[in-house]
Write a structure and sequence with these properties.
- This protein is of the alpha+beta class and 382 residues long.
- Helices cover 64% and strands 11% of the residues.
- The chain has a 6-stranded mixed sheet with strand order 2-3-1-4-5-6, with helices on both faces.
- Helix 3 packs antiparallel against helix 4, helix 3 packs parallel to helix 5 (98-117) and helix 6 (122-128) packs antiparallel against helix 8 (145-168).
- The termini are far apart.
Length: 382
């Protein structure tokens, strides 16, 4: 029995430490929702739930135990109006980024707290604190353990104050029992969901990442291109560009220096690739010695970026001179949408791949631009 308890304690501690160190998964989960066309549903669900919670202070005003006096009435109005404003923002503005999402959590906690303290009876406010669990669930799905911990700390503080007020009012037993319910609902359920979802998201991320280079693999690229459809061009010449590069005569590296050296060359190539492109660009290892970059920029920069990549690969790598054949293809960014992004990018990669093989047949270590003229490619002189 003692060994079982010890094993359980170690398991819980391990999961807690692992969960605490996990990065925020807001972007991952947002992309997942978009890939499955669920953003509109989640947006509506969050807005509806927020609005429903925000109406509660107004309804409580009709109760004898609800808001009484100008201070409590004002507090209830601020809580209700503020929460309704958050609901409206969810429905009328673009999908939030991580910072706006965390701001939503903080403001929701503040407005709920104001609503709870607007009740004349602290016991009524204490019982209503279970509604914090809705925000906790949002944190569990969209954010990391640190954001959830900050929310739980807020809930614990509010619960402790309301429980103390209830006890002082003459009912300590009810204060303790209601506080236990609030803590149970707001701690155990969101925390358990946080750990399990963190493990699932970690497994999902790992399944989309190439273990050798740590770049997205083909599956990871397919999910990442959803962000391409959200791109809005800054100018009339903005394009979505696919760059395919394949290391020349890579088999000779493995034959002469062994597969371990070949792996080091691939890992270093991936590092240089990631360092050369922009933060918004999407790199990928398609397999073997072939890499892909999906970028979004003015047309005039497409070939320049490809040449920079070719030059970066050309620098000595593990004491070897490694070169790459590079193919480039692009499409008008203005015509891109979330629904068409995957198909457009797939076609671009196919076209860039043909241009890359044309560069390889011409001797390698060069950039070729795909054109629509008889499905040929033009060489780019950097």
């Amino acid at each position: 029995m003692r060994s079982a308890v010890g094993e359980m304690r170690r398991t819980v501690l391990h999961l807690a430490v692992a969960a605490w160190g996990k990065p925020d998964r807001f972007q991952w989960f947002s992309d997942y929702l978009e890939m499955h066309s669920l953003r509109a549903f989640v947006r509506l669900a969050v807005a509806f739930t927020t609005a429903l919670i925000s109406i509660i202070p107004f309804v409580n005003m009709a109760s004898p135990d609800g808001a009484a006096g100008p201070v409590r009435y004002t507090t209830a109005v601020i809580a209700g109006v503020g929460g309704c404003a958050l609901a409206v923002l969810w429905m009328t503005t673009a999908w939030p980024d991580r910072r706006r999402s965390i701001t939503f959590v903080a403001l929701a906690d503040v407005f709920i707290t104001l609503g709870l303290f607007s009740d004349s009876l602290p016991l009524a406010g204490l019982a209503g604190a279970t509604v914090f669990a809705v925000v906790g669930g949002y944190c569990a799905f969209f954010h990391n353990t640190r954001v959830l911990a900050a929310h739980v700390a807020m809930v614990t503080l509010v619960t402790a104050v309301l429980a103390t007020m209830t006890a002082v009012a003459g009912d300590p037993a009810m204060a303790i029992s209601k506080a236990m319910v609030v803590i149970l609902v707001n701690l155990v359920i969101p925390a358990t969901s946080q750990v399990l979802l963190g493990m699932l998201s970690s497994d999902s991320v790992e399944s989309r990442r190439d273990p050798l280079t740590q770049l997205p693999n083909r599956r990871g690229l397919e999910q990442a291109v959803a962000s391409v459809g959200r791109y809005r061009p800054r100018g009339p010449d903005d394009v979505v560009v696919a760059i395919v590069l394949d290391l020349d005569a890579f088999k000779r590296v493995n034959d002469a220096r062994g597969h371990e050296c070949g792996d080091l060359v691939l890992a270093e190539t991936a590092h240089r690739l990631a360092a050369t492109i922009g933060d918004a660009d999407i790199p990928c290892r398609m397999g073997g010695e072939e890499f892909v970059v999906v970028a979004r920029r003015p047309l005039g920069e497409a070939a320049v970026l490809a040449e920079r990549i070719r030059t970066a690969v050309l620098a000595p790598n593990q004491g070897l001179r490694v070169t790459a054949s590079v193919g480039v293809a692009w499409a008008d960014a203005e015509a891109m949408s979330v629904d068409s992004a995957a198909t457009v990018v797939e076609n671009l990669i196919r076209s860039a791949d043909r241009a890359m093989y044309d560069a390889k047949r011409s001797g390698g270590n060069r950039v070729r631009l795909h054109t629509d003229r008889d499905d040929t490619a033009d060489e780019y002189a950097g």
